[in-house]
Input
Amino acid sequence: MNTTRLILWTLVVGVAGMLYLLLPSLHKADLAPGEVVTQWTQLYGQDTTRAALLTTERFRKGEEPQAWGTRLQAALQEIGYHHLAGELVEEQVTEEVATITLTARIVAIDGVSLQREVYTLKRVRGRWLIDDLEVKDEVVPGGKLHYAF
Output
């Protein structure tokens, strides 16, 4: 009986210690608005289902993240979409809303486009999520139409 208690006590103390060490890192997992946008640009078109988790339901027009991500991933692959690079040029953050402006290069089947992307993020249950994306000043190769998803 004493051995069982000792093992149990060791497990409890071990788990409590791990939680104590883990809690600060969980708090750091909350991304700042600029970090959310950076992560979005890395995931969108590559792992769009994961990118969907960085967006609000309003952004996805009510669609569930899995369905939205799967649908868009197929469309983006069809046109060879890749977000090549983005440079954060402006950031405005209040307690509940943030606006992040990026200059970006996008590649698709018709070449490389240059554009300015304006992201509006909202704080939802303590997390920053993309609520709107407006593409401005898009320069498309050969004057072709841009792709709207």
